[in-house]
Amino acid sequence: MINASTQGSIRSVSDDVLISARVASTANVRVELLRCRTEATVQWSAAGPEVSLMWVRDKGSDARITMGGRPCDRIAPGRANFWFFPEGVGAEGELTGKGAYDCAGVFIDPAFLSSTVKQSLAQPITGFSHDALGRAFDELAQEMTGPEDVLPLFTEGWAMQALAYVARASRPSARERVAPTSRLAPWQLRRATEMLRADLSQNLSLSDVATACKLSVSHFARAFKASTGAPPHQWVLAARIDMARDLLVNSPTPLVHVAGMCGFADQSHFSRIFARSMGISPGAWRREHRA
After folding, report:
1. What pTM did the predictor assign?
2. Residue of 69, 171, 173, 268 with fewest CB within 10 Å of its CB?
3. Chain-centre distance of CA 144, in angstroms?
4. Which domains does the chain have, with CATH numbers?
5. Three-class secondary structure of residue 258 per DSSP
6. What is residue 151's DSSP assignment?
7. What helix, strand, coil percent values describe the chain, rounded to 5?
8. What is the pLDDT, as a whole number, of residue 178?
9. Rounded-to-integer distance, Cα 72 and Cα 203, Å
10. What is the pLDDT of residues 199-252, one digit of tens each?
11. Which of 6, 63, 61, 12 is nearest to 35 (CA)?
């Protein structure tokens, strides 16, 4: 049994934006479901002691999710996206949307799972989409919003089915089972970097780029790092810093607007990341290099 102080959770910042909030739990599995109205912000956390699965279906606007304060993924209207964190991996962040959306957190006591199951679920997966898992979550949402209580047998059986889909989604197809050091083909690297650089103010979903390269998300991430020397999110961050440096030197754009144009959450986030990368604040860097 997981201690309550180390449990993951999802919760709305304001109750008046909730359509409904339901929890189904047993001694081994806890499921939290929120149905949110327009302009809702949800704070979420996945606690390391648990196996966690986050699910979001956006109904009409580009919802966005952050992880550890860093922009992570944009969720296209109508799509269902998932984030999986195995035992020992914790994470937290916020989810915001301009329209209505549903989100759920599934938290499982690792003691409930066999060692074989846990071995097949050893790696985190972020921002992926899977049709069968999407349908399974729609079934869960329908069950949890019904008039009757959710039976413990349904909750635990559904959780095991969902984990089976996660394990299948994380497994590369036969055509992608290549050496870990394999790189992107030249056309794939060109397509990926063009998409990532096209609008650095936006947070392009990794799954969209992987799909354009005809690869799974996990294989694309490995091959991209082998090709560029950096994971996709670090490559994008470096590109944003380069863009910011150019704007700071060659334009009078205020720092708050530079932050937005380069895809940072706000000026404070921009200043913190820029200083960590360059060893100096954006304002001081601008004064030094323009002089």
Report:
1. 0.56
2. 173
3. 24
4. 4-171 (2.60.120.10), 176-197+205-229 (no CATH), 234-290 (1.10.10.60)
5. helix
6. P
7. 45, 25, 30
8. 41
9. 7
10. 888 777 788 888 899 888 878 888 898 888 888 888 888 889 989 998 998 999
11. 12
Q: What is the edge-to-edge ordering of all strands in the sheet holding 9-12?
A: 9-12, 41-46, 91-96, 63-67, 70-75
| CA atoms of 35 and 12, how far apart (whole Å) | 10
Compute the distance between CA of residue 288 and CA of residue 73 in angstroms, rounded to an integer. Answer: 34
What are 280's two structure tokens?
């100096």
Q: Which residues partner with 101 through β-bridges?
A: 36, 58
Residue 176 near residue 219 (C-beta atoms within 8 A): yes
If we measure between CA atoms, which residue out of 1, 82, 92 comes closest to residue 49?
Answer: 1
Question: Helices 267-278 and 282-290, interaxial angle, to 10°?
Answer: 60
Q: Show the tokens assigned to 206.
A: 């990794």
Taking the CA atoms of the chain, what radius of gyration do you get in angstroms?
Answer: 20
Model pLDDT for residues 171-187, shown as the tens digit of each residue: 655 334 444 458 898 89
Q: pLDDT tens, 97-152?
A: 777 778 889 999 998 888 888 888 888 887 777 778 888 888 888 888 877 778 88
